Automatic annotation (TrEMBL):
Region described as Disordered: 62-93
Record Pfam families: HTH_17
All residue ranges annotated as the Helix-turn-helix domain in the record: 12-61
Domain of life: Bacteria
Protein name: Helix-turn-helix domain-containing protein
High-level lineage: Bacteria, Pseudomonadati, Pseudomonadota, Alphaproteobacteria, Hyphomicrobiales
């Protein structure tokens, strides 16, 4: 079977298709791209595209065997805490 697929061009998915493929929202996939925690992507003509193989590979990195597996948590980094107020009670911008 590998011989038949070796002659086919690699399939690329746009963000909407890739998100649907992974069962995520487009916004979640965009956040992963921003944080560098998502699947490898390419920019072709200014468009972000993902190969199906890279999506499978990234999804496989999330494989866990039990809920006690430390990797079972979120793959997104923790949200940043707001800056503490200054002495004047204002938050710097």
């Amino acid at each position: 079977m590998a011989e038949k697929t070796a002659n086919l061009p690699q399939r690329y998915l746009r963000t909407q298709e890739a998100a649907r493929f992974l069962g995520l929202s487009e916004r979640t996939l965009e956040k992963h791209r921003t944080y560098g925690t998502g699947p490898i992507y390419r920019k072709l003509g200014g468009r972000v595209v993902y190969s199906v193989e890279d999506l499978h590979s990234w999804a496989d990195r999330g494989l866990v065997t039990s809920t006690s597996d430390p990797r079972g948590g979120s793959v997104l980094p923790a949200k940043r805490q707001p800056l503490s107020a200054t002495a004047g009670g204002r938050v710097p911008r």
